[in-house]
Write a structure and sequence with these properties.
It is built from 12 helices and 2 strands. By secondary structure, it is mostly helical. The protein has a two-stranded antiparallel sheet. Helix 1 runs antiparallel to helix 12, helix 4 crosses helix 7 and helix 6 packs antiparallel against helix 9. The longest helix is centred in the middle third of the chain and has 38 residues. Its main location: membrane. It holds the Pfam family DUF445.
Amino acid sequence: MHILKIISGPLIGALIGYFTNYIAVKMLFFPKKEVRIFGKRLPFTPGAIPKGRKRLAKKAGSVIANQLITKEAIVSRMTEPEFENAMVNRIASLFTQSIEKMVANAGYSEAKTAQMKEKMTVSMTASIADSIKDIDFEQLVRDKGIVMIKQKLAGSLIGAFVTDGMLNNFVEPIAASLRDYVETDGRDLVQEQVAIKVEHLFSHSPESLLKRVDIEHEQIQRVIKNKYRTLAEEGVERILNRINVSDIVADAIDAMSIDELEEMVLSVMKKEFDMIINLGAFIGFVLGLLNLVI
C-alpha cells in the first residue's frame, strides 16, 4: 500500500502529461469545423490546421516557389553532366555529320563557297533545331524537376502537403513553356553559332576541310555546351516569369479535404507527434517524482 502511494503520483503525472499532449496533437486537426453554442464560437474550433489551411497553403506555395523551384535549381538539374553531355553530344554529332555529308557531296569549288556556306548553315540549323524539338519536355520536367522537389521536401512538414498529383500539375505548363521558348527563340540561337562555326571551317583550304571536321569536333562540343547552358538559363527564367508556382501550390493544397491533409501530415510527422506525446508522459512522470521529494 505504501509503495502504491509512492508510485501513484508519478504514474498519474505521466498519464496527465500523455493525454494532455495527445489532446494537443489531436487539436491540430479536430474539430474539423467550428463549434457554436448559443451563437458563440467555442475557443480552439476548428482545429489549428483546418482553421489555418489557407494561410498554410499560401506559405507552402511561397516556400516552394521562392526556395525550391528557382532558376538556379532547375538549371542545375538541366545541366547535370549526364543529361547535358548526352544532349551536347547528340547535337554536335548532327553538326559534324551534316558538314561531312554536305562537303563530300557538294562538288566543292571556290564558285560555290557562298552558296555552300548558306546551305550548310540552314541545313544544320534545321537539323539541330528539329532535334531539340524532339525532346520530351514533359518527361524532362517530370524526371528532373519533380525528383528535385521531392528530395528537398523529404521529411519536412511542407513536404506532407506536396503530393504527386500536385507536382504533376506543374509538368504540362512548364513543358509547354519550354517547348514554346525553343520553337520561338531556339532556332535563332542555334543559327548564330552554326554560322560562326561554318565560317570558321571554311577559312581552311578545301583539301583540309574534311580533316578539320574531326579536329573541330571538340570545339563544336564546347560551343554547343556553352549555348545549351545559355538556352537553359534564359528559357527557365522566361518560364518562371510566366508560371505562378506559388498560386498553383496554394490552390492545390486549399482544394484538399481536411481528411487528406491529416493523412498527409501524419504520414510524414507521425513519428514526431508520437515523440511529443511520449515526452508529455515523461515530463509528467518526472514532475510526479519531484512532488514526492518536495
